[in-house]
Amino acid sequence: MSTKLKLVLYQIVSGTLGNALVFFRPEKARELSANRIALVHRNKKNLSISERLMRAALIQKLDKIQDYDVIAEQNRNFWINQSATDLFSELKDTFNTDFLPHCTFIFELLKSELSNHPEEFDTIVEIGTGNGDVLNYLSSEFPNINRFIGIDLCQDQIALNNKKYKDNKRLNFIASDAFDWIQTNGHDKTVFVTSRGVLEYFKESQLQELLNTIYNLGPTMFIAIEPNGADHNFETNPNSELYGHEPSFSHNYPHLFKNAGFNIWHFSQKVWFKATDKQTFVGAKSS
């Protein structure tokens, strides 16, 4: 029996079992599907085999959403409240299993860019800092940077971060909308960072406005580690498109950075999560 046929049979059997479990366990099904984004991102390690089957069946039943304004609003509403804190806690292991082995190479490249830049940078701002693990890591990797600021919509998570990292005096976590904070507090000689799923929740027009604002601050750099749909070809479709079950936005990041005036000094992509999407790495500078 071919591998492809085995996969098809597995999907049929698992789908049938999952749907049956959803039918016979409606209370558990409602619990699992209480929030769309949490359902999609839940750590399967924390679920029993029957719950994994139910989760897969429930994901397949999610209604398609095409209204970009509705999508952006729903995603924002999730990340701003306690549900985001719960998910950050559940996915905390991804710092060790995902970020450290797969993403840190771009910060080694950033070190070279900073050492060759005519001006000395003094601040790193992480947009969508989540549980703060990435920002804490960066504070150890860049000893010459004075300030490390983590911005996130979720006030509860920011409070947890400030408590967890109270002994690291170089870290400062702030509950705010990133665009609002940058308009008021952003300045030059800053490195902006996003890690593994932040800009995907911005509509294309919002993201372009954010990048334009950062570019106009003066000399800045930007490290973007963001997912894209596996079939999003930037050459044939330069515009943003929907992807995933949330859904979120697969952006053409090089195109948007260049539109804002940035120079791209690094661009690469890696297949992610069994080829259902890919991770895009962008290093950009405004001068």
Helices, strands, pairings?
Layout: H1 3-24, H2 26-32, H3 36-41, H4 49-60, H5 68-79, H6 82-90, H7 94-102, H8 105-116, E1 123-127, H9 133-141, E2 147-152, H10 155-164, E3 171-175, H11 178-185, E4 190-195, H12 204-215, E5 220-229, E6 241-243, E7 248-250, H13 253-260, E8 263-272, E9 277-285
Parallel strand pairs: 1-2, 1-4, 2-3, 4-5
Antiparallel strand pairs: 5-9, 6-7, 8-9
Pfam families: Methyltransf_23
GO molecular function: methyltransferase activity
Keywords: Methyltransferase, Transferase
Report strand %: 15-25%
Which CATH architecture of the largest domain is right?
Answer: 3-Layer(aba) Sandwich
The N- to C-terminal Cα distance equals 57 Å
Question: What is the percent of helical residues?
Answer: 40-55%
Biggest sheet: strands side by side, in what order?
A: 3-2-1-4-5-9-8
Q: Number of DSSP strands?
A: 9
- Principal-axes shape call: globular
N-to-C series of helices and strands: HHHHHHHHEHEHEHEHEEEHEE
- Radius of gyration, CA atoms, in whole angstroms: 20 Å
Number of helices: 13
Mean of residue pLDDT?
Answer: 90
Number of domains: 2
CATH class of the largest domain: Alpha Beta
The CATH homologous superfamily of the largest domain is named: Vaccinia Virus protein VP39
Contiguous uncertain segments of 5+ residues: none
Task: Let me know the largest β-sheet.
Answer: 7 strands, mixed
Going by helix content, strand content and strand pairing, the class is alpha/beta
CATH topology of the largest domain: Rossmann fold
